[in-house]
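Q: Given only this backbone (492 positions), what sequence would you predict?
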């Protein structure tokens, strides 16, 4: 039975701790770093491992990409002129790389870190659905291996937390439970997943491509990743390699390393603190918002009745901190799915309706000062229907233009090549992102609900650590927080 949890226990746990965080320049990483510093100024050190050529470059990158963002406004206001001094005392930027042996650190630095490290949080990942296979394997799989090797050197380690994704379990339309992925498991029946074999396959493929140009190598590696993912039943190389990373973690942790795997679904903008609506990068659901805002797309692939599983970034960070405390020094592996589809499902229709409401009440204005009228989008509830529409509305005219271009001795070369490239790009997006548009699985979060049940929500301080999706009013959140946030921070 878990002990009761409240803000005081979480804050108290962080006091005096040395914490290593990878992926701090990413969206979730920034949220976690800021939250730790804000709630517990007496944390010993927060080490941020970033890719950089040397220590000054690492420090500069952390300053520009992490500390210098609007997310740290509350801390900046709290400390005033002492802000830089506080950050300098608590944050240590490390020039390294999780894709390299020893995390790309020299032996003395690694040894010193290992002596004092209490908690390791791995958020670093390449989240590109169509990434080069070699890059995805290096970051999402080998990065886990290198962190595990370092963790085993940490005599006082109390927790290794690994952030994965809820979609590692595939495109099942059933309830997807919180359980570890078994080594060798594949989504395709009768097929075994051998991580070492995948690494050898990539190495051999790179040897064969050594004489090709850089563009050809990049394309071939991307296609190989998609091919291998689908061979084993996953929809893209991102979720495929994240699944392999989980499997490798389960193999390497041994019997005495406390491990928590956190699997968020689609992470959306900050809901409550420190900056409601703050977001970095474009999530899959934000394509709809951005396209509607710019009036750049007239149709969209998706079924409005489908549940879109999303969870605000600050709630994910809160869940991570609570789980960190709950399982500290426990010699086991826990899996949590930070999701919403079971407890508080929301459909694409709610997002679309909230967007329409927002743009009606806050109309866009063109360069000429005139109000830009809202256009209704056309949605296609299946990929075949969308392909048929694209063939009739775009592919056929493109073929006619191709014939005319030949007859007129290349007069329309530039126009044809431009439209052809755009058409192929759209169809590629459909191929890669289509499975997510029609994802009908439901993520079970029984483990996280059990942890939530131990949380005492008796004070405003306790509310700072809320990670209950049932508390979200999706209409209000999309309308007042997320959509304005996307427009402010993404569509600058």
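A: Predicted residues:
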């Amino acid at each position: 039975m878990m002990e009761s949890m409240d803000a005081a226990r979480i804050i108290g746990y962080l006091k005096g701790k040395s914490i290593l965080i990878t992926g701090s320049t990413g969206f979730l990483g920034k949220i976690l770093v800021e939250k730790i510093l804000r709630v517990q100024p007496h944390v010993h050190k927060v080490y941020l491992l970033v890719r950089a050529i040397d220590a000054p470059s690492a420090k500069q990158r952390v300053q520009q990409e992490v500390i210098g963002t609007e997310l740290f406004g509350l801390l900046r206001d709290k400390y005033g002129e002492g802000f830089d001094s506080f950050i300098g005392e608590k944050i240590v930027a490390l020039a390294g790389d999780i894709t390299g042996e020893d995390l790309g650190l020299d032996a003395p630095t690694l040894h010193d870190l290992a002596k004092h490290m209490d908690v390791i949080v791995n958020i670093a990942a390449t989240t590109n659905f169509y990434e080069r296979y070699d890059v995805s394997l290096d970051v999402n799989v080998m990065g886990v291996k290198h962190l595990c090797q370092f963790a085993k050197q940490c005599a006082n380690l109390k927790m290794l937390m690994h952030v994965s994704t809820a979609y590692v379990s595939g495109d099942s339309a059933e309830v997807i439970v919180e359980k570890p992925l078994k080594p060798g498991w594949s989504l395709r029946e009768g097929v075994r997943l051998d991580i070492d074999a995948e690494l050898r396959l990539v190495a051999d493929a790179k040897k064969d491509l050594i004489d090709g140009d850089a563009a050809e190598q990049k394309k071939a590696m991307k296609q190989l990743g998609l091919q291998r993912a689908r061979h084993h039943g996953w929809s893209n190389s991102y979720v495929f390699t994240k699944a392999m990373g989980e499997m490798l973690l389960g193999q390497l942790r041994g019997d005495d390393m406390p491990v928590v795997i956190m699997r968020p679904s689609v992470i959306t903008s900050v809901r409550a603190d420190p900056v409601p609506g703050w977001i970095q990068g474009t999530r899959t659901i934000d394509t709809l918002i951005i396209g509607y805002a710019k009036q750049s797309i007239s149709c969209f692939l998706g079924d409005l009745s489908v549940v879109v599983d999303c969870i605000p970034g600050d709630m994910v960070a809160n869940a991570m901190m609570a789980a960190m405390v709950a399982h500290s020094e426990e010699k086991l592996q826990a899996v949590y799915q930070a999701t919403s589809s079971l407890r508080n499902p929301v459909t694409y229709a709610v997002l679309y309706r909230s967007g329409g409401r927002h743009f009606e009440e806050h109309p866009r204005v063109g360069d000429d000062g005139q109000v830009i009228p809202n256009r209704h989008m056309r949605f296609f509830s299946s990929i075949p229907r969308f392909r048929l529409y694209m063939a009739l509305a775009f592919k056929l005219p493109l073929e006619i233009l191709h014939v005319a271009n030949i007859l007129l001795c290349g007069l329309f070369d530039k126009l044809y090549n431009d439209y052809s490239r755009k058409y192929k790009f759209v169809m590629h997006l459909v191929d890669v992102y289509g499975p997510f548009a029609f994802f009908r699985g439901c993520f079970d979060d029984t483990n996280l609900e059990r942890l939530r049940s131990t949380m005492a929500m008796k004070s405003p301080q306790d509310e700072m650590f809320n990670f209950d999706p049932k508390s979200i009013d999706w209409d209000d959140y999309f309308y007042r927080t997320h959509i304005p946030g996307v427009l402010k921070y993404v569509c600058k």
